[in-house]
Amino acid sequence: MKNLSSKKGKYKVAYFSMEIALENGIKTYAGGLGVLAGDTLRSAADLGLPMLGVTLLNNLGYFKQKINDKGDQEELVSNYDFSKLKKLPNQVKVKIGRDDVSVGVWEYLIQGQGEYLVPVYLLDTNILGNLPKYSSLTGQLYGPGKDYRLMQEIILGRAGIKILQSLKHRYIKKFHINEGHGSLAAIELFLNSKEKNTADKLDEVRRKCVFTTHTPVFAGHDVFPLEFILEYQKDFPYKLKSLVDKDKKVNMTKIGLYFSNFINGVALSHQKVSNKMFPNYPIHAITNGVHSETWTSPAFAKIYDKYIPNWRNSNLSLRNAFNIPLSTIWQAHQKSKKALLDYIYKKQKVRLEQNVFTIGFARRFTGYKRSNLLFQDIKKLLHIHKNVGEIQIIYAGKAHPNDDDGKNLIKEIFRIKDKYKSEIKIVFLEGYEMKLAKLMISGVDVWLNTPLPPNEASGTSGMKAAHNGVPHFSTLDGWWIEGYIKDKTGWAIGKKRNGTNLIELNKKDAESLYYNLEKNILPRYYGNPRKWQETMQHTIAINASFFNTERMLQQYIQENYFVSET
Question: NCBIfam families attached here (predicted)?
Answer without folding.
Answer: more_P_ylases
